[in-house]
Structures are given as C-alpha cells and as structure tokens.
Specification:
Helix content is 54%, strand content 0%. By secondary structure, the protein is mostly helical. It is extended and about 40 Å long. It starts with a helix and ends with a helix.
Length: 82
Amino acid sequence: MSLSSKLDGKTKRDKAFREILLSVEPGRDDYYTLNRKKSFSDEYTLRVANSLENIQFSSLLGTAFDYMARNKPETFRRTRLK
C-alpha cells in the first residue's frame, strides 16, 4: 500500500492517520528560506533546477522516497537491537 493510498483512504484508520499528520504539520509561517526571505514566494533564489527529462519521472522519484522512508526506520531498529 502506498502512502498516497493511505492519505486518500476512506477507512477509519486511514482518516486517523491523516489527522495525525495534519496535527503535526507546520504552519505556513513556520517555514523559512536560508536567507530569511518570505517562504512560498518568488523572492528566493532557485538553488536546484528540475532536471527531470519527463514529468512522469517525478512519480518514480516519489515512489523511491516512499520506500526509503519506510525502510529507514526498520534499518534503524535493527541496528539498535544489535
């Protein structure tokens, strides 16, 4: 099951998961740029351009991040148990 399907899920458990994420999500004013310019605006300088040749590659990148985010806690638990 993907993270997207959990976020879009209709079950009570999926809705509870979504509520937990929303409760800890920082507010818009909590974000800042390194040079302290206004976040989410055109005031900041783009440091890394989107170099994906195909827009669909972003889906692959998101899936890779999803798997990495799931695997990292498990790896951390295994090393702490040793």
